[in-house]
Design a protein that fits this description.
By secondary structure, the protein is mainly α. The chain has 2 helices and no strands. It is globular, with a radius of gyration of 12 Å. The mean pLDDT is about 90.
């Protein structure tokens, strides 16, 4: 499945490290979707995930080749601090 959400072009994702490997479930996982999932998991107190393979893929815009797991962890931290909005 391919992500078509607008977050693919969010310039905040430019700051994420690049990831060219196949860690944590997939090389091309959408970092925007990973961030949103992390934020939701953090806000609800769910333990952090290690497998993101069920998320959509994206090779568009600011999320291209970005580390989805780092995006997830950033979203998780924000969810823990602020709750999900």
């Amino acid at each position: 499945m391919i992500c078509n959400k607008k977050h693919r072009f969010d310039k905040d994702f430019d700051l994420l490290p690049e990831a060219q490997d196949d860690r944590n479930g997939g090389r091309h996982i959408c970092a925007g979707c990973a961030y949103e999932l992390g934020q939701s998991d953090g806000a609800t107190g769910r333990p952090p995930r290690t497998d993101l393979s069920g998320l959509p893929e994206s090779q568009a815009g600011s999320v291209r080749h970005k580390d989805a797991y780092q995006a997830y962890l950033q979203g998780y931290a924000k969810g823990r601090r602020e709750g999900f909005k």
